[in-house]
Amino acid sequence: EAGEEEAADARLAQAVETAARATDKKQAAEALLAVRRSYPGTTASQEALYRAGVLSFEAGDYPNARKALKELLFENPLFREAKDAKHKLALSALKVGDHREAYQLLTSLAEDAEGPERDSYLQDAARAAEGAGLSGEALEMAVRTAGEAQTPEAQAGAVARVEGLVEGRPG
Fold first, then answer.
1. In angstroms, how far is CA 94 from the centroid of its own chain?
2. Which pTM value belongs to this model?
3. What is the pLDDT of residues 132-142, one digit of tens each?
């Protein structure tokens, strides 16, 4: 098993070099996914899956980003970059119209975050809730954001969002 880990690590290093030289992020992701297929169950495989998911996300290939990141988080929810993987998975879900999944992931991320990071997650979660037809949740989050706003400008923007939701205007 140790020999397989070493071989997987070496193959990952090669794939990372190949990906860095690639001009097409989809091709770069494919080079990393080859490591995943060749060495499943290794830490290098998980790293390759994460990197392929990130590259797919950056390339705007949200379906493949979702596939890779979901697989990673299912296999290892404690992966060292699990928070980033979950965030990119949520944003990918939002981009492809799976608002309910995005809402669930973003509210989960917001529970463990603070400050501006939490605010960002909650804003995205409110958009996802609205897109999923969860108007009650969207309104609740908008009211909470308005109540927690730190500046008059932020509060005015949040209040306008609440008004828009109440009046049925898209946010």
1. 9
2. 0.81
3. 877 777 778 77
